[in-house]
Amino acid sequence: MQLIQLSSKKRKLISAYTIIAIAMFFLSSCNILQPRDPQDRNQYQYNETSYPKHIQAPQATRDPAQLGGIAFAVQKVRPSVVGISTYHVRQGDYGMESQSIEGVGSGFIVSSDGYILTNDHVAVSLDTKIWVILHNGDELEGKVLWTDPTLDLAMIKVNGTDLPAAELGDSSQLIVGDPAIAIGTPLGLQFQHTTTAGIISALDRTVEVGTERGQNFMEDLIQTDASINPGNSGGPLVNIDGQIIGINTIKVVSAEGIGFAIPINAAKPVLQHFFEEGEFVTPYIGVVGYDKNIAHYYKQTSSLVEGVYVVSLDPQGPAYKSGIKINDIITRVDDKPVTKMLELRTTVYTHRVGEVVQLIVIRDGREMEIEMTLEQNPVLTAN
Question: In whole angstroms, how far apart are CA 311 and each of 18, 77, 241, 286, 294?
């Protein structure tokens, strides 16, 4: 479990957005083991005694047609929710010993042939050893296929057929006050499939988090008061129809009932690539940008134009090569409006590396069109 400290100077309401500037936890649960040779991870075996299984008590059987509300939603989605046990080695810096780390998180099955969606901070890296615990207690070894620390999403694959895939909802249709149900593995696998319920408390939250990889703005988050705890990371946030509307990711630790989920629509372009092609090679543009409200807050601009305000460029990236400049405002990608980095990323993620996209950019008050060829992300790779 990782404590996230956020800068206190940013505790300010920005229009419809809030930059949450308080201590937060990513919702995975980790144990640091005794230092060991990194090569030992190849011999590491999942030890089920470390994480005692939840013993399923006999449950009353009722006709699904008689169920309603939360009970119906839970029974519909619960078989697709999985527990995840991980093992990875964190390399030591400056001569320090490497650390062997075990973790526990959650995820959910998105296809009957074994694709599972979870958080990046659960999967950690492509080298992480993964075990997936299904609803029926079966344990399958998994493989991390793709991770994205910016979106905090990862894809895992297990060998399986006829697995119970979850139904995905449409997070763009949510309104404050909608019921919200969280299912996951809080505090360990002995509590697998713990279910809590609440409401959608707020939408479109922007949270700045500090991670081992640096500062990151997480945008468009769904805020809920459904109780979530360490180990819930990667588990689903579910609507009253039993459809997944979000992926639980972080919570405020200094207050009760303030947790956040990534909207499921942010993951759909990636899922589409995996379903159609069996892989996703992450396209890269090399831009860091703020939306209008954050840019105004940081005094980057006084403009009221909706778009992504470019604040940093990778000089080796495709945006720089195509002529994008700092202080440009990207307003459209292939005729689709973009108002924040999440929209820019997810729109780009509908494309493939090597494809050309058309950007509409405002520079010094003038609108211009720029062509940009997408390149493979130099950091994010897929197996």
Answer: 20, 41, 41, 11, 11
